[in-house]
């Protein structure tokens, strides 16, 4: 579900339609606020792409990223 690309954790997710993809992004936004860690998000119709890295650590992957990625993955379990 997640891969490492250019110092980021990258996830790509497909849904039935835009509404389902947007509902997922809403859940991700709530998690991001809870974890105080905010991903880069791209949504194109039914496809959502997320990039996670820690800006204040020099744009690298840290435990903040892995913890948020795990929480996001649990949304889809």
TrEMBL record:
<keyword id="KW-0456">Lyase</keyword>
<protein>
    <recommendedName>
        <fullName>4a-hydroxytetrahydrobiopterin dehydratase</fullName>
        <ecNumber>4.2.1.96</ecNumber>
    </recommendedName>
</protein>
<dbReference type="InterPro" id="IPR001533">
    <property type="entry name" value="Pterin_deHydtase"/>
</dbReference>
<comment type="similarity">
    <text>Belongs to the pterin-4-alpha-carbinolamine dehydratase family.</text>
</comment>
<dbReference type="GO" id="GO:0006729">
    <property type="term" value="P:tetrahydrobiopterin biosynthetic process"/>
</dbReference>
<dbReference type="GO" id="GO:0008124">
    <property type="term" value="F:4-alpha-hydroxytetrahydrobiopterin dehydratase activity"/>
</dbReference>
<dbReference type="InterPro" id="IPR036428">
    <property type="entry name" value="PCD_sf"/>
</dbReference>
<dbReference type="Pfam" id="PF01329">
    <property type="entry name" value="Pterin_4a"/>
</dbReference>
């Amino acid at each position: 579900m997640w891969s490492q690309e250019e110092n980021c954790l990258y996830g790509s997710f497909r849904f039935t339609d835009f509404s389902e993809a947007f509902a997922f992004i809403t859940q991700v936004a709530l998690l991001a606020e809870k974890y105080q860690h905010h991903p880069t998000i791209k949504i194109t119709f039914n496809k959502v792409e997320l990039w996670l890295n820690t800006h204040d650590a020099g744009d690298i992957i840290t435990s903040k990223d892995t913890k948020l990625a795990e929480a996001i993955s649990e949304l889809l379990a």
